[in-house]
């Protein structure tokens, strides 16, 4: 097994790693379409500079979650596909 890994070109290993990462990301986009908001880190609150007062996060609309980019692309293709049928 060690000889096989040593004989594999580095470019092929990079391609296989990229394909593996893409498959995992697509699976996450399919089964867990939402991720924590990057702005409020999932708390749904955006704090003031002094840290005493807060308002709802404007980025996620106060839900604390955002739709993953891959899921947005997935939904767009599904919408186009359904419109053409």
Outline the structure in words:
With 85 residues, the protein is an alpha+beta fold. The chain has helices spanning 2-7, 10-31, 69-84; strands at residues 34-36, 45-47, 54-56, 65-67. The strands form two sheets. It has a two-stranded antiparallel ribbon. The protein has a two-stranded antiparallel sheet with strand order 2-3. Strand 2 (45-47) and strand 3 (54-56) form a beta hairpin. It is flat, with a radius of gyration of 20 Å.
Question: What is the element layout, followed by pairings?
Answer:
Blueprint: H1 2-7, H2 10-31, E1 34-36, E2 45-47, E3 54-56, E4 65-67, H3 69-84
Antiparallel strand pairs: 1-4, 2-3
Helix pairs in contact: 2-3
- Count of helix runs: 3
> Would you tell me the structural class of the helices and strands?
alpha+beta
Tertiary shape: flat
Q: Helical content, roughly?
A: 40-55%
Find the count of extended strands (DSSP E, 2+ residues): 4
C-alpha termini separation:
49 Å
Order of helices and strands: HHEEEEH
Output the strand order for the largest sheet: 1-4
**Whole-number mean pLDDT:** 85
Beta content comes to 5-15%
Q: Strand count, sense and closure of the main sheet?
A: 2 strands, antiparallel
Low-confidence spans: pLDDT under 50, at least 5 residues? none
User: What's the gyration radius in Å?
Assistant: 20 Å
């Amino acid at each position: 097994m060690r000889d096989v890994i040593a004989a594999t070109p580095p470019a092929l290993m990079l391609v296989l790693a990229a394909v593996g990462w893409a498959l995992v990301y697509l699976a996450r986009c399919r089964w867990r379409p939402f991720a924590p908001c990057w702005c409020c880190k999932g708390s749904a609150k955006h704090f003031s500079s002094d840290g005493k007062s807060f308002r709802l996060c404007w980025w996620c609309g106060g839900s604390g979650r955002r739709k993953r980019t891959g899921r947005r692309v997935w939904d767009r293709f599904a919408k186009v596909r359904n419109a053409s049928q």
